[in-house]
Write a structure and sequence with these properties.
With 107 residues, this protein is an all-alpha fold. It folds into 2 domains: 1-71, Orthogonal Bundle (434 Repressor (Amino-terminal Domain)), CATH 1.10.260; 72-107. Helices cover 70% and strands 0% of the residues. It contains 7 helices and no strands. It has helices spanning 3-18, 22-28, 35-40, 48-58, 62-65, 73-84, 88-106. The longest helix has 19 residues, at 88-106.
């Protein structure tokens, strides 16, 4: 796996999911207007501290940034938080529903 290409692609993917421009994201991170654009165009990489700010910006854990099994880690986090507030019986019902939906999706 080419981790550099994955990084660039993942950043673009997460930013697009959030519905924010590269310019606005750059400014939100306290960087120059073209900062994120340079990263997405493979001309730069962020420092570790900026990478952590990027994860905070997306409201995800750094490990979730690199988890290619999660298409939308922010949404997964939100679902897990809501799921954990439900009583056990409702969690079981929801799990059954998700299993049923995944069967339909596979067809």
């Amino acid at each position: 796996m080419d981790y550099f290409d994955f990084f660039y692609q993942r950043l673009t993917e997460l930013r697009t999911q959030k519905g924010i421009s590269a310019r606005d994201m750059s400014l939100s991170l306290g960087q120059s207007e073209s900062y994120i654009n340079k990263i997405e165009n493979k001309k730069a990489l962020p420092s570790m501290s900026v990478f952590f700010f990027i994860c905070d910006f997306f409201e995800i854990h750094p490990k979730d940034f690199f988890d290619d099994n999660q298409e939308n880690p922010y949404l997964s986090k939100q679902l897990a938080e809501k799921f954990n507030t439900l009583p056990c019986e409702q969690q079981e019902h929801l799990l059954f529903l998700l299993e049923d939906l995944s069967k339909i999706h596979k067809k």
